[in-house]
């Protein structure tokens, strides 16, 4: 049994007059330490699936377990990193990254020292007393990563966390997040529209079709690509082949919508 198990999940969005099926018969398993990407056309239910994994709401039917428990039971140990950093502008960077620990009742001298040490490891030494407005977009996302990692989550959920950044900063942060999660042996699920990002960061890619969202195909990223950093993946021989394969599948799905 995998660390994360999704079994026959379906989900509807209801209004007074309609019921829209967002997901249908979604089943997959993730082993501890794996990095999985959810890829697919707009409206295929990727973010809905991520929200269910986060325990923000239950699926209409089906079952999700994380480390043999429901997402609700693991809510304090799930990290969620979004496109926007959502740092509180009136709090310092230090106060922002310690907030989760404080809310969970886990703030201590030791956990505070660990969080501040991690801040330095990701290149933010000396910004502890600064406010978010004083940092660049890339630095703010690094701070958001530090806040996410401070609670030592079992599972990281990443919802297009690099899409608002310029391309150079995006590539640098992909490498940083990839190396950080590998170093700490974290399990992660990334939602992205970027095929290259999915290939360069993932062990496997789940390609969703839409209306309603289903798993269309699962792609295993070749071992030689998984062995190097995301930046280096894009220059390797096997990258273009898997990119073209996924591109054609995605194009056919969008044509059929």
List keywords for this structure.
257 residues; alpha/beta; Rossmann fold; three-stranded antiparallel beta sheet; 9 helices; globular
CATH architecture title of the largest domain: 3-Layer(aba) Sandwich
According to CATH, the fold-level topology of the largest domain is: Rossmann fold
Oligomeric status of the shown chains? single chain
Rg, nearest Å: 18 Å
H/E element order: EEEHEEHHHEHEHEEHHH
Mean pLDDT value:
91
Q: Structural class given helices, strands, pairing?
A: alpha/beta
What percent of residues adopt helix (DSSP H or I)? 25-40%
* Strand tally: 9
Number of structural units classed as domains = 2
Strand order of the largest sheet: 5-6-7-3-8-9
Q: Give the overall silhouette.
A: globular
Low-confidence sequence ranges? none
């Amino acid at each position: 049994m995998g660390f994360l198990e999704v079994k026959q999940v379906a989900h509807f969005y209801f209004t007074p007059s309609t019921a829209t099926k967002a997901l249908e018969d979604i089943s997959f398993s993730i082993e501890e330490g794996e990095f999985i990407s959810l890829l697919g056309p707009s409206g295929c239910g990727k973010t809905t699936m991520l929200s269910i994994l986060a325990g923000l709401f239950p699926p209409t039917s089906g079952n999700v377990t994380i480390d043999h428990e429901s997402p609700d039971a693991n809510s304090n140990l799930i990290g969620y990193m979004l496109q926007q950093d959502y740092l509180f502008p009136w709090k310092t960077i230090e106060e922002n990254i310690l907030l989760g620990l404080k809310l969970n009742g886990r703030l201590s001298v030791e956990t505070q020292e660990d969080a501040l040490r991690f801040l330095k490891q990701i290149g933010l030494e000396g910004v502890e007393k600064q406010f978010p407005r004083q940092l660049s977009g890339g630095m703010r996302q690094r701070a958001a990563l530090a806040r996410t990692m401070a609670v030592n989550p079992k599972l990281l959920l990443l919802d297009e966390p690099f899409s608002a950044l310029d391309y150079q900063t995006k590539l640098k942060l992909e490498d940083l997040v990839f190396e950080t999660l590998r170093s700490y042996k974290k399990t992660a699920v990334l939602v992205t529209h970027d095929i290259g990002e999915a290939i360069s960061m993932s062990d496997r890619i789940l390609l969703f079709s839409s209306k309603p969202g289903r798993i269309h195909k699962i792609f295993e990223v070749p071992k030689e690509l998984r062995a190097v950093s995301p930046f280096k993946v894009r220059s390797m021989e096997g990258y273009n082949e898997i990119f073209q394969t996924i591109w054609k599948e995605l194009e056919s799905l969008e044509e059929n919508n």
